[in-house]
């Protein structure tokens, strides 16, 4: 249990720094999402081969449509998140992205007939008000602001919607667990991202310097491949409430990186709105009904 907890904490800290590395990779969001998926698929596939884990072919065949859809949603989710980091600060992009659990909470009663409690409704309202606050604060930045916070927040919300789609689709996938499911989703993401990149930016790796290459390899192999392996391995041994609480290390690290390392400013209203979104979602997920 202690080892699993440490693996989850480590994976969340690593996830929280991805925006920092994105800053030093001079390729489009679509390209970065594609390279991330390719590098991670190679690494996860290598792990499965090395550990000789049995492949559940029969279950995979039955779940192919859902695996393809979830993988495609994952790819679009990455593109939109990277676009959010391009347009606004890592902090605001990540906070907007963490509206995903709120979306899942609202849709689960409709899709799975789960009961929506009064506490969940209250958390939804608090998170929504927080989102409205950071959006209105972003609009006040004006056209001359160094960042386009409003556009970045919208990209973050788009990423949240697709991440919520991935979560919900995974609830329907049966018999394909852990790394097998992740590898297949990476492959599906690659299948979607290859034509997208070909029709938009094309391959622009030739213009990258050594720093860009190192950061790209870290994002693909460490942030995605290694960290996904640690994340899914820890899920098997930890209770859901522990996972929900520790998952909030990710946005907290992202905010710290944005404000302390990159010195990206946030005004008082954005701090208040962000605290409302993360606080309400953590309260909803972490402490009973």
Summarize the structure.
This protein has helices at 2-16, 18-22, 29-51, 57-87, 90-97, 100-112, 118-139, 149-172, 178-199, 210-235, 240-246, 249-261, 268-286. With 289 residues, the chain is mainly α.
Characteristic key phrases:
single chain, 289 residues, mainly alpha
Number of helical elements = 13
Strand content: under 5%
Based on Cα principal axes, name the global outline. globular
C-alpha termini separation? 25 Å
Sequence stretches where pLDDT stays below 50 over 5 or more residues: 142-146
The Cα radius of gyration reads 19 Å
Can you write the helix and strand succession as a string? Answer: HHHHHHHHHHHHH
Major sheet details: none
Mean pLDDT: 85
List the helices and strands and how they pair.
Elements: H1 2-16, H2 18-22, H3 29-51, H4 57-87, H5 90-97, H6 100-112, H7 118-139, H8 149-172, H9 178-199, H10 210-235, H11 240-246, H12 249-261, H13 268-286
Helix pairs in contact: 1-10, 1-12, 3-4, 3-9, 3-10, 4-5, 4-8, 4-9, 5-8, 5-12, 6-8, 7-13
Q: What does this entry look like structurally?
A:
With 289 residues, the chain is mainly α. It has one domain (2-286). Helices cover 79% and strands 0% of the residues. Helix 1 (2-16) packs antiparallel against helix 10 and helix 4 crosses helix 9. The radius of gyration is 19 Å and the shape is globular. 46% of the residues are buried.
């Amino acid at each position: 249990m202690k080892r699993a907890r440490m693996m989850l904490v480590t994976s969340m800290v690593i996830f929280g720094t991805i925006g920092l590395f994105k800053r030093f990779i001079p390729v489009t969001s679509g390209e970065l999402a594609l390279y991330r998926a390719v590098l991670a698929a190679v690494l996860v596939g290598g792990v499965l081969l090395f550990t000789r884990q049995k492949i559940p072919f029969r279950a995979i065949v039955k779940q192919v449509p859902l695996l393809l859809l979830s993988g495609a949603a994952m790819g679009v989710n990455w593109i939109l998140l990277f676009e959010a980091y391009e347009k606004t600060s890592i902090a605001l992009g990540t906070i907007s992205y963490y509206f995903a659990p709120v979306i899942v909470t609202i849709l689960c009663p409709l899709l799975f007939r789960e009961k929506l409690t009064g506490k969940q409704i209250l958390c939804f309202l608090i998170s929504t008000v927080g989102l409205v606050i950071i959006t209105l604060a972003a609009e006040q930045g004006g056209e001359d602001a160094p960042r386009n916070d409003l556009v970045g927040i919208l990209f973050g919300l788009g990423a949240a919607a697709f991440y919520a789609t991935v979560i919900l689709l995974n609830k329907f996938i049966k018999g394909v667990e852990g790394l097998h499911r992740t590898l297949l989703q990476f492959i599906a993401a690659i299948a979607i991202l290859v034509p997208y990149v070909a029709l938009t930016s094309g391959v622009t790796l030739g213009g990258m310097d050594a720093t860009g290459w190192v950061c790209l390899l870290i994002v693909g192999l460490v942030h995605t491949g290694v960290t996904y392996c640690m994340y899914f391995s820890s899920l098997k041994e930890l209770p859901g409430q522990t996972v929900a609480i520790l998952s909030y290390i990710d946005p907290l690290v992202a905010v710290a990186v944005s404000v302390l390392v990159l010195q990206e400013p946030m005004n008082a209203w954005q701090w208040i709105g962000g605290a409302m979104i993360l606080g309400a979602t953590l309260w909803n997920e972490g402490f009973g009904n």
